[in-house]
Amino acid sequence: MSRPLYETAQDRVNEVAIMQRFTNAPFYKVPRSYPFDFAMTDKRGDIFAVAEVKNRSYAFADIPDYMIAANKIMKLLAFGERLSVDCYLVVNAPDGLFFWHLDPKALDKFRLTMGGRSDRNDPADSEPVCRLPLDWFERVG
């Protein structure tokens, strides 16, 4: 059974605006079947990186770490490693735009816990999550 789609048309507009702030490279929204939101290409059209984009309402300064579905991280890393492309997690927050260049060597350095959202009354929102240290993220600009 497929999950409900919570992403709105405005969310997609916001993601494009975030990518415009993140990169000068051409980028393309990919189908939902991929474990990321955007592919970035060079001048020849070859994909050199992919990005998962998150738009958050809370400040990075207000959280102890960044929580993301473990399944998302595993799929992103597998895609990047198998196809030799860089993978980025790009997070827009009220206190800035941040990114993490995913590093497979970091997999044993974060906490794996149960977590997720509790505001949608969706039992599938509770899942294994990676708790990424904030000092892994760089600020854009």
Describe the model:
Helix content is 20%, strand content 36%. By secondary structure, the protein is of the alpha+beta class. It has a single domain, classed as Trna Endonuclease, Chain: A, domain 1, CATH 3.40.1350. The model has no long low-confidence stretch (mean pLDDT 92).
Helix content: 10-25%
Trace the largest sheet across and list its strands.
Answer: 1-2-3-5-6-9
- What is Rg? 15 Å
Query: What's the β-strand tally?
Result: 9
* Main β sheet profile: 6 strands, mixed
Low-confidence stretches: none
Shape: globular
Q: What is the element string, with H for helices and E for strands?
A: HEEEEHEEEEE
Distance between the termini: 41 Å
Layout of helices and strands:
Layout: H1 9-22, E1 27-29, E2 38-41, E3 47-55, E4 65-69, H2 70-83, E5 86-93, E6 96-101, E7 111-116, E8 126-133, E9 138-139
Parallel strand pairs: 3-5
Antiparallel strand pairs: 1-2, 2-3, 4-8, 5-6, 6-9, 7-8
Record keyword descriptors for this entry.
6-stranded mixed β-sheet; alpha+beta; 9 strands; 141 residues; Trna Endonuclease, Chain: A, domain 1; 3-stranded antiparallel β-sheet; 36% strand; single chain
Structure described in brief:
By secondary structure, this protein is of the alpha+beta class.
